[in-house]
Amino acid sequence: MTLRKAGFAAATALVLSLTATACGGDSGAGDDKINIGIKFDQPGLGLKTQDGEYTGFDVDVATYVAKELGYDEKDIVWKQAPSAERENMIANGDVKFIVATYTINDERKQRVDFAGPYFLAHQDLLVRADDDTVRTEDDLNSSEMKLCSVTGSTSAQNVNKKFAPKANLINYGGYSECLTGLENKAVDALTTDDSILAGYAAQEEHQGKFKLAGLNLSDEPYGIGLKKGDTELRKQINDALKKMVDEGAWEEAAKKHFGPADYEYEPAPEITETN
Amino acid sequence: MSNLSVLYDAPGPRAKARNIVYSVVFVVLLALVLWWVLATMADKNQLDRAKWEPFVADSRVWTTYLIPGLLNTLKAAALSIVIALPLGALFGVARLSDHQWVRGPAGAVVEFFRAIPVLLMMFFANAAYAQFTDLPSEVRPLYAVVTGLVLYNASVIAEIVRAGILSLPSGQTDAAKAIGMRKGQTMVYVLLPQAVTAMLPALVSQLVVIVKDTALGGALLNYPELLSQVRLITANYGANTIAAFTVIALLFVLLNYLLTSLASWVEGRIRRGKRSAGAVLHADTNTEMEFDEPHVEAPARKG
Amino acid sequence: MFDFLDSGQYDVLGAFWVTVQLTVYSAIGSLVWGTILAAMRVSPVPLMRAFGTAYVNVVRNTPLTVIILAASLGLFQTLGITLAGGGDFEVIGFRLAVLGLVAYHATFVCEALRSGINTVPVGQAEAARAMGLSFLQVLSLVVLPQAFRSVVAPLANVLIALTKNTTVAAAIGVAEAAALMKTMIEYESDAIFLVSAMFAFGFVVLTLPTGMLLGWVSKRVAVKR
């Protein structure tokens, strides 16, 4: 009997502690903290490192904007913003804004507002460094072409619907799976935004292995997503972005994160999302 | 036929020699496959030091990714079993009710949730929570995974409980009736306590199923459990996907092997400890395959 | 609300057809490989017994998601195994998913068969040996036929579990029912109840008759002792 009671007590304690930890995370930030959504698994843009630090171009932009809004670097609480969750996170108020390779488009503008753009990316291909078979967009549309992308991404849809419906496309849950296939010659190219590809190519472990094909397959203006209707915040963020470019901090960040990949990024774009 | 050596004669000198030949051929075949796999991997630079070294040389891989991931796996599994257990017991007992209006609906619910893939329930829960609740997006995957696992496993546990109660000798009920116990009392004081002990091994095995299913939440719902750490590790250590997968698969095998061993140990304890009429539900009848028939220990058939 | 059903945008029946195909091919494969594993586990060669035991213990304790991802990333992307030639990624993905499902469910077939072998009276094997039958003959002519008849119900459960587990193939992009459901939930978010109910119904239709039919078969073929 005592054993059963003890077991019951232990089980109850377990449930309580688990629910406590489950709820502990969402107590949220008070007035002196700011929640910002970024990618956690995108080298060069938003990456959680093995030390638990955050690094990347998006992170630098977000930090700068937060500073202009009056938040110190240590007051920032980084939240993981997976692609499919971004609109929800903003609508729920989980984050103040999101800087996570977030392409501005009309469909998304129905649910969230954007500030920026702060960067202009293009869909491109990452190929093995010694592979010169892809030179133009037309080379892609062939059944011999083995492409890899991420399930549900716009890049994958572009391949299917726009420029290479004939290509053999495989979709995985993440880019690293595609890199393995690329390295092992099971696929010919990984396709997504050049900024993301540059992040991978610039990684220490990959230097000299991969290169960007340099095709501008689409325009992807990255914006900072925020709650719909918050014009005040949008203005503040746009001002902060302008200042970042004028001060040269933008260029510095871009060079730091994209430079090692020989990636010729576009200069800072004009801010268009003002009303 | 518990001693399987009855299937063949005790090997004589010729049979022994033949067995050795078979063994050698078998080993050579296995070795060839292994050699080919390793050679191909080496050829494609998958055995590079840089890809595997982090897992032994860099403790941060463990502290930042693997251990938190493992804890998240365990958290989802523990929450699921703790919630599914009472729910399952309730439905299991309800299915044995004398009243058609209790038995019928309970049976329908159990059969329905056993018939649908757990992944579908997770997808649905995730979408429903996103649309109808204000759960922050960080904890929603956990809720979705646990909801899916609870719905499915409660229905499986309901069947385990039902089988456990049905496996008890009818003398138990008769005796309870004879001393004037009501139906509810018989269930609570006589049948359930015995059934629970009989079910224990099967329940622990069910944990293995739950732990394995949490991986679905990692692969398809962004729940930060063990398997999903592959993505973060490979983003930091240069696409060492194969290495990361191997390490994580081994961790899963180890964890589940421990749980399976625990189940057999519990089964052994109960079997030795109890001389009473109780039955033991097999720990190694794989519970994932559900209980259509009460898995009562088969009457021993000694040769 | 129902307009997406008519638009022809989503091929629900096609997706379920892929699920059915995955199930059928994997079921046949699991039965064959599971029987071989069971034979290994009761064979006179200690090494094969050890291999069978190790295989079952390792594979059964690995999540199916990991196995199927490993088939795609390890076998295909790394080792270059496409199973019967190259071709479209979709076709290769399907074959790899079947391979993963077979590797996993064969362990459950094997364990069911082993418990079936246990129900065959010892006298049967002894009589067969007395007639001079070899191990393989004892197994294939006398023991397994009886064992199979006693494990129809557990095997039916494996088959039902297999039907449901084909959804895991969504993890490597096979266009089966669960993958379509995920897409539809994303794009038709105002109709998640309808979409979910539709897919749930599809699986109920696939699994319930299987269970009932094989339950009836198991009673028909059971060896009366």
Structure description:
The complex is a heterotrimer of chains A (275), B (303) and C (225). Chain A is built from nine helices and twelve strands. Chain A is an alpha/beta fold and 275 residues long. In chain A, helix 5 links the parallel strand 8 and strand 9. With 303 residues, chain B is mainly alpha-helical. Chain B is 74% helix and 0% strand. Chain B is flat. Chain C has one domain: MetI-like fold (Orthogonal Bundle). Helices cover 78% and strands 0% of the residues of chain C. Chain C has ten helices and no strands. Chains B and C meet through helix 1, helix 4, helix 5, helix 8 and helix 10 of B and helix 3, helix 4, helix 5, helix 6 and helix 7 of C. Chain C: It is found in: Cell membrane.
Short description:
Chain C: This is ABC transporter permease subunit. The complex is a heterotrimer of chains A (275), B (303) and C (225). With 275 residues, chain A is α/β, with parallel strands linked by helices.
What proportion of the residues of chain B form beta strands (DSSP E)? Answer: under 5%
Radius of gyration of chain B: 24 Å
In CATH, what is the homologous superfamily of chain B?
MetI-like
Q: Largest sheet of chain A, described in full?
A: 9 strands, mixed
- What string gives the helices and strands of chain B in order? HHHHHHHHHH
Tell me, briefly, the overall form of chain B: flat
Low-confidence stretches of chain A at least 5 residues in length (pLDDT < 50)? 18-30
Helix content of chain B: over 70%
Principal-axis shape of chain A: globular
How many beta strands in the DSSP annotation of chain A? 12
Query: Portion of residues in helices of chain A?
Result: 25-40%
Count helical runs of chain B: 10
Radius of gyration of chain A: 21 Å
- Largest sheet composition of chain B: none
CATH architecture of chain B: Orthogonal Bundle
List the main descriptive attributes of the protein structure presented here.
heterotrimer; B: 303 residues; mainly alpha; MetI-like fold; 10 helices; 74% helix; 0% strand; flat; disordered C terminus; C: 225 residues; globular; MetI-like (chain B); cell membrane (chain B); transmembrane helix (chain B); transport (chain B); transmembrane transporter activity (chain B)
